[in-house]
Amino acid sequence: MTQQKKSLRKKTSSKTINARRAGHQYERDLAKELRELLGDEDISTSRYSSRKLDDAKVDIFGTQKYGFHIQAKRYKNNPNLFEILNEMPTDDCINTIFWKKPHVGEIVCMTKQDFYELLIILINERK
Question: For strand 94-101 and strand 68-74, is the pairing parallel, antiparallel, or unpaired?
Fold first, then answer.
């Protein structure tokens, strides 16, 4: 490769590579946790199992039969949650964002309407 071509290639910092690697690891960790929690060996990362879901901003494959899509984010800064939810599929599944902020914790985000739907289901189950 000529020196000119080398200089034209976009340089990727080691921080960017490490952040991508950490994000991919978070997806694998979530898939493993869900497999164990639900006892379902079909749950995996969509990067591994479904290019179509991965392209649709869904990171975990196999949760759709339980009514959920999951997008995993591992960011130091706040991700644009509204934008992410808007990019996810618009079907009968509840779109959720699992966000891990390093050294702080993890949260799950969804729309208020989806939360209310889950709340109604929980209330009706307890009657």
Answer: parallel
69 — phi, psi (to 5°)?
-110, 140
Tokens of 122: 């929980």
Question: What is the radius of gyration, based on Cα positions, of the chain?
Answer: 18
Total domains present in the chain: 1
38 vs 32, 63, 66, 106, 112, CA distance in Å?
10, 10, 10, 19, 25
Residue 102 lies in domain? 12-125
Reported as a single tens digit per residue, the pLDDT across 80-117 is 999 999 999 999 999 999 999 999 999 999 999 999 99
Asked whether residue 2 is domain-assigned, the answer is no
Q: What is the pTM of this model?
A: 0.81
Nearest partner of 61 among 78, 43, 41, 79, judged by Cα: 43
